[in-house]
Write a structure and sequence with these properties.
alpha/beta; Rossmann fold; four-stranded parallel sheet; two-stranded antiparallel sheet; 13 helices; 6 strands; about 10% strand; globular; membrane; Phospholipase B1, membrane-associated; SGNH_hydro_sf; phospholipid metabolism
């Protein structure tokens, strides 16, 4: 009954055309910002192409002798298709912006979970790591897009995330993914192993104070349940990386007083505006905790454990992560774009490494990183049992 009420409420909310003005306010803020800084160059925010990563060498980088039929026996090289769903963290908005005007660019090709630009030497993303094991991997995003502008799969690959997405929009992303994979040329939908990374929920918390029913922890987990149920029923041979939500409170301290940091107030006002120790802030933080608890309960419930070719794995590397800091203990803004919320390529590479390592760490021993600024050394799949 509770979930039925939530479903009806969400339907009415969408039907009435009521939606958050968060991203319109963000774009307006970028325009105001540009009037102050114009085309000023912030080259320190950009990934230098001359910086190359040394190769990752592992004892076993080959596929299984035959295509595995069990989800518990899938090696990195067995993955044929990579995809991602989510919001602006996955579209990588502003990630390689060198000036204010570029903040509304979606650098999908550099995204931590689905970027397919260049090679591992150029930029560390999950697909670029996987391409070391299977060079024929399909799905990595190849180019940047612009928010709310038309784009094609040639640019996005299977990065089907939507900037600004709330969880109530998430089932539509899953439906789009299923349709895309069914109709994409050269894919064996039934036989190819797929790795799908999901990261969603921050925008619900950023909007929580605007509608405490629509953006509650209960609504969030309902929307995730609908999404995962759909994938479970209709997506064969799939491993779902469900990335645990971060504690957003840490982002309140990421503010150097610049106008760019004030952009936080346009798209995450429910987090940024409440006073320290206020009841409004505590209520939001309690919801943040409940988001995490609900997600852990859903994934651990066994709801998605009955099929031999499907798994949802909770990857908790961000669960307790603190804001990155330098050797002096001050916030390291090199990990953040000019809006002091989204990640630069430097930040995205840390996310990619944390996710990869979690994928090969057993349940109960998955590492939760303490800070994005702490060095993360990529691990190799175990010699014994080298499975995702």
């Amino acid at each position: 009954t509770q979930y039925l009420f939530i479903y009806i409420y969400i339907y009415i909310y969408i039907l009435c055309g009521i939606c958050s003005d968060r991203w319109e306010a963000y774009v307006k803020g970028v325009q105001d910002y540009s009037s102050l800084y114009g085309s000023r160059d912030f080259s320190e925010k950009v990934r230098r192409e001359t910086t190359l990563h040394p190769p990752l060498q592992c004892p076993d980088m080959g596929p299984s002798p035959t295509i595995p039929t069990s989800v518990e026996k899938v090696k990195a090289a067995d993955v044929k298709i990579v995809a991602a769903l989510g919001d602006s963290i996955t579209t990588a908005i502003g990630a390689n912006a060198s000036n204010v005007f570029q903040l509304v660019n979606e650098y999908r090709q550099l995204s931590w979970s689905i970027g397919g630009y260049g090679t591992f030497a150029d930029v560390i993303t999950l697909p670029n790591i996987l391409k070391l094991f299977n060079p024929d991997l399909v799905g990595g995003a190849k180019n940047k897009t612009r928010h709310k502008k038309p784009h094609t799969l040639n640019e996005t690959g299977f990065n089907l995330a939507v900037t600004g997405a709330n969880s109530y929009e998430f089932p539509a992303q899953a439906r789009n993914l299923i349709h895309t994979l069914k109709t994409y040329p050269g894919i064996n939908f039934a036989e190819d192993w797929k790795l799908v990374t999901i990261f969603i929920g921050a925008n619900d918390l950023c909007d929580y104070c605007k509608n405490k029913t629509l953006f509650s922890a209960d609504s969030f987990i309902f929307n995730l349940t609908v999404t995962l149920d759909m994938l479970y029923k209709e997506l064969p041979r799939a491993i779902i990386n469900m990335v645990q939500l971060i504690h957003l409170e840490e982002l309140r301290v990421v503010n150097d007083g610049s106008f760019g940091c004030w952009l936080q107030r346009s798209f995450c006002s429910c987090l940024v505006k409440p006073a320290k120790n206020s009841t409004e802030l505590q209520e939001l933080l309690d919801q943040n905790n409940q988001f995490q608890v609900n997600l852990e309960y859903l994934i651990g419930s066994g709801r998605y454990d009955e099929k031999n070719d499907f798994a949802v794995v909770l990857q908790p590397f961000l669960k307790t992560a603190n804001a990155p800091r330098d050797e002096n203990g001050t916030i390291d803004y090199s990990y953040f774009t000019l809006d002091c919320f989204h990640f630069t390529v430097k930040g995205h590479e840390q996310l990619a490494k944390g996710l990869w390592n979690n994928m090969f760490q057993p349940e109960g021993a998955k590492v939760e990183i303490q800070s994005l600024s702490n060095p993360i050394q990529l691990i190799c799949p175990p010699v014994v049992g080298p499975y995702i």
